[in-house]
Amino acid sequence: MRRTLRNRLRTRRRAESGAVTMEYVLLCLLIATGSMMAVIAFSRALLDMTHTVTYAMTGQAEKASNALREYRKDRAEDFKTAEQWSDSLHR
Fold it and tell me: Residue 54: which of 41, 63, 45 has the closest Cα?
């Protein structure tokens, strides 16, 4: 009788341990996905602004102005795309 009860408790403890492990795996996956999306979203913006600042600091005002215009155009397109994705997810 005692062994049976002890075995049941061990089995239950192992099952709960597996569930907790799965929760941690899902949490890590969610964090990794969010991090990847942030890197993808902000890396291009950071690179574009770095180019603009570099051109401005080296006295290439026309290139800096063109780079800034391109940056703004790209951001506007990115926002439109993000809005379309958001709308399609909420339908």
Answer: 63
pTM of the model: 0.44
Tell me the CA distances in angstroms from 75 to 41, 42, 48, 78, one per residue in order: 10, 11, 10, 5
pLDDT in tens, the chain (91 residues): 566 767 766 766 666 666 778 888 999 988 988 888 777 777 777 888 888 888 888 889 888 888 888 888 888 887 788 788 777 777 7
Q: At what angle do helices 2-57 and 61-89 cross, to 10 degrees?
A: 150
* Residue among 39, 31, 45, 49 at smallest CA distance from 78: 45
What secondary structure does DSSP assign to 32-79, as a single string? HHHHHHHHHHHHHHHHHHHHHHHHHHTT-HHHHHHHHHHHHHHHHHHH
Distance CA 45, CA 13 (A): 49
